[in-house]
Amino acid sequence: MKIGVLALQGDVPEQRRAFERLLGPGAVVHVLDPAGLSEVDALVIPGGESTTIAQLIDQAGLRTPLLRRIEGGLPVLATCAGLILLSARIEPVPGLREPVPLRVLEITVRRNDYGRQRESFEAPVGVEGLEEAPFPGVFIRAPRILSRGPKAHAIANRGDEIVGVSSGRVWGFTFHPELSDDPRLHELFLSETLGWKRQSQKTSRTATKSPTATATKR
Ligand code: GLN
User: Per CATH, which fold does 3-217 belong to?
Assistant: First the structure.
């Protein structure tokens, strides 16, 4: 399995590390052009500066190939700026130049809606499929999802607010799961969209049946 990280700008190394931790070295490649995109089984659109990433997508000739692959069912994990780029509409903010979005997720977003860098924060997030414990959400100059249409399914919430949506195999979050130490969201993405299962999960499930094995493991 090959996971591509769109490596034009943004927190590329952090996403790479998060996936390598689960899949091992060599499982993650940087996507910089259409040829690179055609080789991957899933794509990460990282956080960063959405205006810059959008410009670089166009310069690299990636807009149409990206849309084609997404239409063809490519799993995509998008965070923060990535989510902005996948949105249907970006509510203008005075003084900010808005990128042209890819219009894949049926949501309207407003950029930097919680404030500047210093107003970045961490807050517990509820994620569908990770009900056993809240997920530590790291919000950095995060966008806010202002509204969504019926095709965007809410998969993450912070209180009453939706902070993550999915549409088929395309997942987007306003926070940065790659910046917390919790691998569960990346794991969930891989298992739900690609049918991947962590090897050691099987081992530890077997191990819990046997007290001796559990003791040895610890
Ligand atoms: N504020 C950035 C933008 O609008 C997104 C921030 C992020 O990705 N952490 O593009």
Answer: Rossmann fold (3.40.50)
Mutation choice for ligand 1 from 80, 91, 109, CB with most ligand atoms inside 8 A: 80
- Summarised one tens digit per residue, pLDDT across range 139-178 is 999 999 999 999 999 999 999 999 999 999 999 999 999 9
Neighbours of 67 (CB within 10 A): 13
Q: Find residue 167's DSSP bridge partners.
A: 170
Q: Which atom of ligand 1 is nearest to the CA of 111?
A: 4
The identity of residue 154, as a single letter, is A
Q: Which residue among 20, 71, 80, 106 is the active-site one?
A: 80
Ligand 1 pocket: which of 8, 9, 14, 50 to mutate (most atoms <8 Å of CB)?
50
Q: 169, 76 in Cβ contact below 8 A?
A: yes
How much is the pTM?
0.91
Segment holding 110, helix H or strand E: strand 105-110
Q: What residue ranges do the domains of the chain occupy?
A: 3-217
